[in-house]
Amino acid sequence: xxxxxxxxxxxxxxxxxxxxxxxxxxxxxxxxxxxxxxxxxxxxxxxxxxxxxxxxxxxxxxxxxxxxxxxxxxxxxxxxxxxxxxxxxxxxxxxxxx
Length: 98
Hints:
Elements: E1 6-8, E2 21-23, E3 37-39, E4 54-56, E5 71-73, E6 88-90
Parallel strand pairs: 1-2, 2-3, 3-4, 4-5, 5-6
């Protein structure tokens, strides 16, 4: 199976994941999870193994490392999510409740 990973902007550090899209400065920079979409500067830039995350906005889900099935829309949306899964956050600096 061929890896289908696309990045625009600064290239990621790693590209071991598959089916990822990163658009913006270091968006999805590690690129090791699968089926992730990151649009915006630093969006999902800490992800190491999470999958099926969608992040739109500068720094959205920036600190997510292993979380899966998260959706964040808005600048800095979902930044408190590091390992959590199945969250949806919308709005400037919006975060999931603990």
